[in-house]
Amino acid sequence: MATYDALGATYARTRRPDPRIAAQIHAALGNATDVINVGAGTGSYEPQRTALAVEPSRVMIAQRPPGSAPAVRAVAEHLPLRDDAADAVMALLTVHHWSDLAAGVGELRRVARRRVVILTWDQHIFRERFWLVRDYLPQAAAFDDTRATPTGRLVDLLGGARQEPVRIPHDCLDGFGAAYWRRPDAYLDPRVRAGISMLAQTGEEAIAPGLARLAEDLATGRWHTRHAELLTLDSIDVGYRLLVADH
Predict the structure, then answer these.
(1) pTM for the whole thing?
(2) Contacts of 237 (CB under 8 A, 6+ apart)
(3) What's the domain count of the chain?
(4) Containing structural domain, residue 130
(5) Measured between alpha carbons, how far is 127 from 140 in angstroms, rounded to an integer?
(6) Cα within 13 Å of Cα(224), Cβ side
(7) What is the CATH number of the domain that holds 182?
(8) Which of these, 81, 75, 79, 90, lies nearest to 36 by C-alpha position?
(9) Helix, strand, or coil here: 15?
(10) How does pLDDT run across 99-136, given as a tens digit for each residue?
């Protein structure tokens, strides 16, 4: 995707896999002997048994670490793979970027012999529970409204799936949207924001007033007073969901 040729340059630095989330993803893949990663980015969360990564952005592929699975440039809607190419196919935090969701999910099902695993988020829960978009950056939430995929629609396209909540640890290593829920100062760092598509694609001008309010609330201690209970938690559920579908 051309978007990530522009936005993905910092991903290898800010988007490192978190081992707790990795464990949940790998458990969801079950005993699959080989895995294809679609919308693979820099290769986060790929298990050792990954046979192939599919990624449209040269910038993202260039950041894949040495020893990663081979990568091919292609889009989810047109996978250059035969039917039943691998035991399992995974697509992590990528479906909201696809131009044709139904076609992309259809391709995942065509290529997977046994299981499809998708990591996404429930936008309604995310809007309600995540303080950053609820209280400071409604513009970013509005942007996500235009691209977020209802989990129910994904379940229907998959022909049925179980949903697992993915709780975000307070010290999450992977710098996606809600990763810094207990480290609010991080959202004031432009390097962190560059690795969060929700913020990078909304644009700095649009989010600047909200970030200024956040900075003021952090400086005065208002944020910490308002979120005192949040600061006692080790992890939270803000709507990230793992969908697991078996053929």
Answers:
(1) 0.90
(2) 125, 129, 165, 166, 167, 168
(3) 1
(4) 2-246
(5) 10
(6) 7
(7) 3.40.50.150
(8) 90
(9) strand
(10) 999 999 999 999 999 999 999 999 999 999 999 999 99
